[in-house]
């Protein structure tokens, strides 16, 4: 039985990482270029459904192929403690407590905590810094290799955990600079943070994580329509079905270049043809796939995208939604909301910063998240009944 090649499940590796090769190259080249290469400390941002988790999975795959050890974590309470346990899995130590030392001075990073986790059999507390150094010193990591840490959903991390991680990584890099090991033999550490766009602004505005300003910043954006079309054609053909260029282009345009929508449309149009017992995907299959994809997209992307928005931000977005999918004139928002120009300017800046909307020509705005405007209109219609 033929298997659907499209993988819209969150974090599942798709058949083709379309439009992401430059970022992949940045990371892979950083591993080859040694300690200090910019891509060894990276911030990857993008809205939900843009493939951040997939990128982290790919980075870990690349690191393993280079002979590196990898640790993949998702930000939540106890992040530093879990990293410590991952770095020291065979010590037999039992965790008694995790606490934060509030007044450790770090040059260039201001006064910060370093996240100490106390173990019952340790004479001295095990810190993330010395756990990393101890692991790097082990024979299990070959010369010139190292440890990659990836942290997903970074916007959910606590301030204390981010400080602990940031200061530990900075110290480990500095510790390596102090020995006389040849550059080619030095073991290193790489870390990639991934999260929503506003995460970058909060991280870089935080004085205790100023070293992250030197991180390589990469934002995942829409994939160009021609690349999506080609990916549809290649993936469908490799799965044993057929799709002509016109049909693939229609599906690509409907996806808006949004990676998660690409996977959803691909999955459901392929499944529509499969249910008909056909080896050829048609325009009718694309239409069926789009209808099913929108239902899944609303639940997985549009609804969460609005989480955390204020009533004022929702008022602004609702005013824009009246024109969706067409752009909105900024002057119309002031009239519809009955707010001042300064109010409109304020929330325009906030929503652009959070990547919910974007400029679309002089004096016009459009939604940065596909289908978000239509989703807002459907909510208003449902609530009016």
From TrEMBL:
Keyword entries, A-Z: ATP-binding, Nucleotide-binding
SUPFAM superfamilies per record: P-loop containing nucleoside triphosphate hydrolases (SSF52540)
Annotated GO MF terms: ATP binding
Record-linked Gene3D superfamilies: P-loop containing nucleotide triphosphate hydrolases
A Pfam cross-reference name: AAA_16
Keyword ATP-binding: yes
Residue span, Orc1-like AAA ATPase domain: 17-170
Domain of life according to the entry: Bacteria
UniProt key word ATP-binding: yes
InterPro entries tied to this protein: AAA_16, P-loop_NTPase
Name of the molecule in the record: ATP-binding protein
